C-alpha cells in the first residue's frame, strides 16, 4: 500500500445533497486506507436536512459534513475525482496528481417538490442509486488493493 492514502474527491455543483450522500456511503464502504471528501463548484453553504435524514435511516451520520468549494482541494494530491452532476463534470478542473476521473450523474433530490414525505421518497431513491454505484466502486477498489498486496 502506498505511504500516502489516496484522496477520492466527489464533486457536485452545490455540495449540499448528492455529493454528501456519496461521500458518506463511500467512506463507510472503504477502509481507512482512503481519504474521502466532497466539494462543489458553487457550494450552497449547507448540507440539506433531508440528505442528513435519509442517511441516518441507513445508519450513516453526515450531520457534521460541511459544504465546501472545490478550490479548497486544488493544492492537494487528489487521486480520483468523481462528479455526480453534469454541471460539476463540465466545471471540473484537473487536480494535482489526479489519476482517475469518473462521472456518474444522479437526479438532484433538492429539486423534489411536494410534501416532506414526497420529497423524502425522492431523496431515498437517489440515496439508494448512489449507494449501489458507490458500494460497487468501493468493492472494486478494495479488491484491486487486495490483489496488488498479494503480488510479490
Automatic annotation (TrEMBL):
Keyword Membrane: no
Protein name stated in the entry: Arsenate reductase ArsC
Keyword tags: Arsenical resistance
Phosphotyrosine protein phosphatase I domain mapped to chain residues: 6-140
Pfam family, one: LMWPc
SMART domains given in the database record: LMWPc
PANTHER family registered for this protein in UniProt: ARSENATE REDUCTASE
Amino acid at each position: 500500500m502506498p505511504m500516502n492514502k489516496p484522496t477520492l474527491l466527489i464533486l457536485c455543483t452545490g455540495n449540499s445533497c448528492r455529493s454528501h450522500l456519496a461521500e458518506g456511503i463511500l467512506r463507510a464502504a472503504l477502509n481507512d486506507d482512503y481519504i474521502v471528501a466532497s466539494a462543489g463548484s458553487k457550494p450552497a453553504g449547507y448540507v440539506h436536512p433531508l440528505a442528513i435524514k435519509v442517511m441516518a435511516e441507513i445508519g450513516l451520520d453526515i450531520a457534521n459534513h460541511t459544504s465546501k468549494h472545490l478550490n479548497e482541494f486544488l493544492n492537494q494530491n487528489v487521486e480520483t475525482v468523481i462528479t455526480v452532476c453534469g454541471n460539476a463534470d463540465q466545471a471540473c478542473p484537473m487536480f494535482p496528481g489526479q489519476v482517475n476521473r469518473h462521472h456518474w450523474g444522479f437526479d438532484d433530490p433538492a429539486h423534489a417538490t411536494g410534501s416532506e414525505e414526497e420529497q423524502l421518497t425522492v431523496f431515498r431513491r437517489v440515496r439508494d442509486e448512489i449507494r449501489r454505484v458507490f458500494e460497487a466502486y468501493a468493492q472494486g477498489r478494495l479488491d484491486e488493493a487486495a490483489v496488488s498486496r498479494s503480488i510479490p
